[in-house]
Amino acid sequence: MPEEARYVQFPAVPHGSKHEDGTPVLNRYSSYITRGHDFPGAQAMLYGAGVTDRETMKKSPQIGVASVWWEGNPCNMHLLDLAKTVKKAIVDKGWLAWQYNSIGVSDAISMGSEGMRFSLQTRELIADGIESVTCAQYHDACIAIPGCDKNMPGVIMGMARHNRPSIMVYGGTIGIGYSKLLRKRVNISTCFEAAGAYAYNTLRQPDDDGGDTSKTKEEIIEDIEKSACPGAGACGGMFTANTMASAIESMGLTLPGSSSTPAESPAKMRECVKVADAIQVCLEKNITPRSLLTKRSFENALVMTMALGGSTNAVLHFLAMAQTAEVDLTLDDFQRISNKVPFIADLSPSGKYYMADLYEIGGIPSVQKLLIAAGLLDGDIPTVTGKTLAENVQSFPSLPQDQVIIRPLDNPIKSTGHIQILRGNLAPGGAVAKITGKEGLSFTGKARVFNKEHELDQALARGEIPRDENLVLVVRYEGPKGGPGMPEQLRASGALMGAKLTNVALITDGRYSGASHGFIVGHIVPEAAVGGPIAVVQDGDVITINAATNQITMDVSDEEIQERLRHWKPPKPHVTRGTLAKYAALVSDASHGAVTDLF
Ligand code: FES
Fold first, then answer.
1. Could you give the angle at which helices 151-162 and 313-324 cross, rounded to 10 degrees?
2. Which residues contact 155 (CB under 8 A, 6 or more apart)?
């Protein structure tokens, strides 16, 4: 199908056109409704909304400022303030800026509950919202301000759809919490791991430093809960939000440093001012999202994700973003990049440090410098500044010699990437493993099957997972259609870590939070709800996960699998109305990004 037939076509003044006074036409889209008097109703509404005079109506570009603001989540609660600063910087140019909000949900608040099913589909709702407002209102450009996991891919997908000059301003990372009772730094994943330690009665104060050891587990968990989130900003480890922001910065879609500049730093406010000049550059040079969303820039995103040890959700989101931008990206590209990029960042969840620590030693631009110099990151890609990525980071310092967060490339934590694409008779359509090497490269154990995550959560809460036998815990009917919504399973994976159940691996057709670690495999395709082999795994089947050979198999013959599938019946959908039902009806499989757009 030709490109022209894919999206609604909007009349736009050709790039390079001039107004009568010789100034460039930057209101290439909005001028359709603001020049002359073909749309008096539109102009009346715009005067009503604050346009002051005819000249501004005729000539000013209209910039949509889309914040994923809502006040009940640290990741999002400050985004309205950032958006107001962005708007003021645009208005100070004499231009029109229109703020609007998109919805978002907090993964950390919904984690482990039925609410988590609504999380992934918000990516599509955010994209739908930004596409809708930009196109319906004839905005000439878009500045989006996301803060929490699904926000980032959602706004980029919206930008790719409307394809008008756009910049993302990341809301920024949260600071680092400190638990007085544990006498250590804590973050949101500490809470999920504490749940396992609480259930297995291993939540105690440290006894190796001569300090107080008298507090009860209730007092300790309360202290962790009160200390883990010390202010505004996205979860502070290399979890999904920071992963996506770092990778998107490496694609050239943000100002340099956006992903590592903390949410509450004065530098974040300065970024919000600078973005007004940058969007002018994008308008003048017609730098559009799709001109930046290329195979090369997606490869940069994958390189950064592997180097940092980023979230497995990145696989899902980059596949979805690439499809939206019509870039050919497949699971095999992830494996190819993983094979060549060393994992070098000692960052939470598997490591010690946080994004706020990385900021102190130069942030993502300094990591980009290292990777460009090594030939791993493509420094020649264009960016929203009008310069190349390499030019953007030139003025940033190199990583200090004595820093310990980013390992040298010749002495990595793992010589290849931590994300492994697995296939086998359990996942013929692919699966995604996060293997940092700390857990070993292969695992064999007997299956213990749970239909839905809550069954496993209950078993863990009752202390029913034994420590004396290698087990592969199988959580199924949690895929994009079956969940529905492909919920994250940090509650279970965190509790396993907290309980120090190192004798288990966890596999699922759902997905994991970026804060998850351990021997975990998700995104199993085909999912159970559509009759994938995971639907017929039985307790006691022996499952082998091998990250060295990229296989995930069960020791059940093909004939036996087919025989079991003959007796399998698809479960009745338990959600038949509302947004989740619509999502389940439309969504593609995880190996194709779990998207609802029609490709
Ligand atoms: Fe928003 Fe973790 S809940 S980034």
1. 10
2. 66, 68, 102, 126, 127, 130, 144, 146, 168
pLDDT at 434: 87
Q: What pLDDT is attached to residue 2?
A: 45
pLDDT bin (cut points 50, 70, 90) of residue 519 is confident
CB 75 less than 6 A from any atom of ligand 1: yes
| Single-letter code of the amino acid located at 260 | S
- Find the mean pLDDT for residues 371-381: 98
Residue owning the nearest CA to atom 2 of ligand 1: 235
Residue 366: CB atoms within 10 Å:
21
Is beta strand 520-525 parallel, antiparallel or unpaired with respect to 542-546? unpaired
pLDDT of 502 > 80? The answer is yes
Helical H runs in 216-265?
A: 217-227, 240-249
Give the span between the Cα atoms of 285 and 338, in whole angstroms: 34
Rounded Cα gap, residues 160 and 541, in angstroms: 44
The CB of 108 under 6 Å from ligand 1? The reply is yes
- Is the per-residue pLDDT at 372 higher than 70? yes
**What SS3 class is residue 238?**
coil
* Best CA proximity match to 342, nearest among 430, 401, 406: 406
Residues β-bridged to residue 12: none
Six token digits for residue 330: 């497949």
Query: Is residue 235 within 6 Å of ligand 1 at its C-beta?
Result: yes
pLDDT tens-digit readout, 437-489? 777 889 999 999 999 999 998 998 888 999 889 999 999 999 999 999 999 88
What is the C-alpha separation between 257 and 249, in angstroms, rounded? Answer: 8
If DSSP states are collapsed to H, E and C, what string results for 411-466? CCCECCCCEEEEEECCEEEEEEEECCCCCCCEEEEEEEEEECHHHHHHHHHCCCCC
